[in-house]
C-alpha cells in the first residue's frame, strides 16, 4: 500500500479546532439534511429535552432550535467550539433554551431516561457507533429517539485502496444493513435511514473549507505542520471525489424500545 494518509486526529487538537472553528459546520451536512432527519424523528413534545452530542460550533443545533420547542443541550469536548456555540445561540436569540456545555460523550452528565432526543451529527465515531448507541440509551425515555450520522459503506464491495484507508482510520465502518442491525441490537427500532447527499460534502463542507485555507496558513506563517494539515484536508477531499460511490455519511434514526 502507498503512503498512509494522515487523518485529522493525528494533528494537534488546538490546530484542528482552530481550522474547523472557522467553518459553520465541522462535518458534512446541511440545513436540509438536518430537517429531513428531524422530520423522520416525528413530533416531539412541547417541553422536549434534546441533547446534541459532539455539537461543534452548532451548525445543526441552529436548525434543531428553529424546528423544535423545549430545551437543547449541546455538548462538545472542545471549549473553544462551545464558546463559539454559545455566542452563536445568543446571536440568534436561542440562548434562553439552548446551552452549550464542555464535556465528553463518554461520560454524559444527564439523568437516566431524561431525554426525548439524542442527536449526534458526524460525531458518534469519536466513541464508536455501537458503543455510543449502547451507552447513551439509558438517558433516553422509552419511545425517545436517537438520530446519528455515521460514515458507512454504500456498496457490498469496494476497491482495495479505499477499503484499506477506512479500515485503518475507522475500523467500525460497515455497510448500511449491518449498521441498521447494530442499531436494532442496541435496543432501538430502526425508524429510518438515508444517505447524506453529495452536496453536504462538496458544497457545504469542502467548499467552505477551501475558502479558509489561506487565512489559516497565514495565521500559522505557513509552518510545515499547518501546510501538512491543509494538504491532508485536500487529499481527504480527493479521496471522497474519487470514491464517493462507495462510502458516505448515512443518517440513522432509531426509537428506544421498552
Ligand atoms: N456535529 C457537528 C460537529 C461534527 S465534528 C457538525 O456536524 O458540524 C465532531 C465533533 O465532535 C467535534 O466538534 C469534536 O470536538 C467533537 N468531539 C470529539 N471527541 C468528543 C468527545 N469525546 N466528546 C464530545 N465531543 C467530542
Characterize the main sheet: 7 strands, mixed
Could you name the ranges where pLDDT drops below 50 across 5 or more consecutive residues? Answer: none
Q: How large, in whole angstroms, is the Cα Rg? A: 18 Å
In quaternary terms, these chains amount to single chain
Number of helices: 9
- What structural class do you assign from the helix and strand content? alpha/beta
Overall 3D shape: globular
For the biggest β-sheet, the strand order reads 3-2-1-4-5-7-6
Strand content: 15-25%
Q: Round the mean pLDDT to the nearest integer and report it.
A: 95
By DSSP, the count of extended strands is 7
- Small molecules held by this entry: S-adenosyl-L-homocysteine
First CA to last CA: what distance?
Answer: 47 Å
Order of helices and strands: HHEHEHEEHEHHEHHE
Helical proportion?
40-55%
Question: Would you give an account of this structure?
Answer:
Helices cover about 45% and strands about 20% of the residues. With about 260 residues, it is α/β, with parallel strands linked by helices. It has a seven-stranded mixed sheet with strand order 3-2-1-4-5-7-6, sandwiched between helices. The longest helix is centred in the last third of the chain and has 22 residues, at about 200-220. The chain is globular and about 50 Å long. About 40% of the residues are buried. The structure holds S-adenosyl-L-homocysteine. The site of S-adenosyl-L-homocysteine has 21 residues, from helix 3 and strand 2.
